[in-house]
Design brief:
The chain is an alpha/beta fold and 405 residues long. It folds into two domains: 5-53 and 315-394, Urease, subunit C, domain 1, CATH 2.30.40; 54-300, Metal-dependent hydrolases (TIM Barrel, Alpha-Beta Barrel), CATH 3.20.20.140. The chain is built from 15 helices and 18 strands.
Length: 405
């Protein structure tokens, strides 16, 4: 099977710029140049826009289930976790195997345009599954669950985990200030005490960040992940995101799990825009939101040489969205599942409209047909069989809105 081909698009978003009448050539899973192939060239429909594939900066794939659990607002994440684990939905979820839940989580991300996901959980849990999954789940990261007394003791402690990050040029990832009690609000101070607030540090939630915290984060060149859906559901509050953006901090968007967050990355970015408008009476620019789900998380996770933008030498992770070429950023920010027309990971088609059947026939062999929102799609693997197995396990026709098949 040949791995060399090219795509021609009326509109391409890199995401730093919009390029008209673009060509991109893929060989060996990587972008080699911006020319049409002398061999196989595929032309995208004129209303279809080419983007880099999306990057979900924070998920808990093991927790992929529905509906949401909780009766907030909570003072911190800890009482929510008690409500989650004592719920009937949690017991129902855990009738399925961890691998099945991971596969459901992967399809949740894939159908919404994401080929790269950070699954913030101890390595011993996701290591057995990562290489078996259809999308890219990051395995090179150091971690703490938290940096307060609420820490679940993931990893080897702040000092050793941050040292691993520096020595191996990988991110050090932690939840931080996920609450409003006195202990939660000490998060940045604790990182500073341990000399662990650096350019390697990737922090999630930060709903209690003070102006002092934001200045320290900006000075350290640390990174921030915003999960507005989960924040608003659990706490009725979210981070001072406008101040974080204005401070020049690298900010990404993540979904958290659907047990508290939005159902997928597309829903999350729409919600992010809505929350920003409600908080500040103005819009967060669509171009900036697109950066928060492409190049920004690639930088945070020290993967910008591989993913996050359409550049020569990077992996052929590509997303095609139906929309308006005159306003391509808004087309992505407002996209629904039906608007996801085609997805490649390392030059291999994983999901897309059956209109692009030739691409799947030429470049892939492991795919089935499903119907999403009334539109037929090809997809890698067999999510229908996965859902049939899940429904048999739980004993009724379970509906998952992020996998509506």
């Amino acid at each position: 099977m040949s791995t060399e081909f090219s795509l021609s698009a009326k509109t391409m978003v890199t995401p730093d710029e919009v390029v008209m009448d673009a060509h991109i050539r893929i060989d060996g899973g990587k972008i080699v140049d911006f020319s049409a192939s002398e061999g196989k060239n595929y032309t995208l429909q004129k209303e279809h826009i080419l983007f880099p594939a999306l990057f979900n900066a924070h998920d808990h794939l093991f927790g992929t289930y529905y509906p949401k659990i909780g009766d907030g607002p909570y003072v911190c994440w800890f009482p929510w976790d008690f409500d989650l684990k004592s719920s009937e939905i949690y017991q129902e979820r855990n009738k399925n195997t961890p691998f099945e839940l991971y596969m459901v989580g992967c399809y949740k991300n894939l159908l919404s345009g994401a080929t790269t996901v950070h699954d913030h959980i101890p390595h011993k849990i996701n290591d057995p599954f990562i290489e078996k999954l259809p999308i890219r789940v990051i395995k090179d990261y150091a971690l703490s669950h938290e940096v307060s007394v609420y820490d679940l003791k993931w990893g080897d402690g702040i000092d050793l985990e941050h040292k691993k990050a520096v020595q191996n040029n990988i991110p050090y990832v932690t939840h931080i200030e996920e609450g409003w009690d006195q202990e939660s609000m000490r998060g940045i101070d604790i990182l500073v005490e341990h000399n662990a607030l650096t350019e390697y540090t990737v922090m999630i939630h930060g709903i209690a960040f003070s102006q002092k915290d934001i200045k320290l984060i900006a000075k350290s060149k640390a990174h921030f992940i915003w999960c507005p859906g989960s924040n608003m559901f659990m706490f009725g509050k979210t981070a001072k995101v406008r101040d974080i953006v204005e401070a020049g901090i690298n900010i990404s968007i993540g979904t958290d799990s659907p047990s508290s967050g939005e159902i997928n990355l597309l829903a999350e970015i729409r919600f992010a825009k809505e929350v920003y408008r409600d908080l500040y009476g103005e819009d967060l620019e669509d171009r900036e939101i697109v950066r928060m789900i492409t190049i920004n998380p690639a930088r945070a996770f020290r993967m910008q040489d591989r993913v996050g933008s359409i550049d020569k030498g990077k992996l052929g992770d590509l997303l095609v969205v139906s929309g308006d070429g005159k306003d391509p950023y808004s087309s992505l920010v407002n996209a629904q599942l039906k608007n996801i027309a085609l997805i490649f990971k390392e030059g291999k088609p994983l999901y897309g409209d059956t209109d692009y059947g030739e691409i799947f026939e030429d470049l892939s062999s492991d795919y089935t047909k499903i119907t999403i929102e009334g539109k037929e799609k090809f997809v890698i693997g067999d999510p229908q069989a996965l859902m049939d197995k899940l429904r048999k396990t739980v004993g009724f026709h379970k509906e998952l809105p992020f996998l509506p098949i």
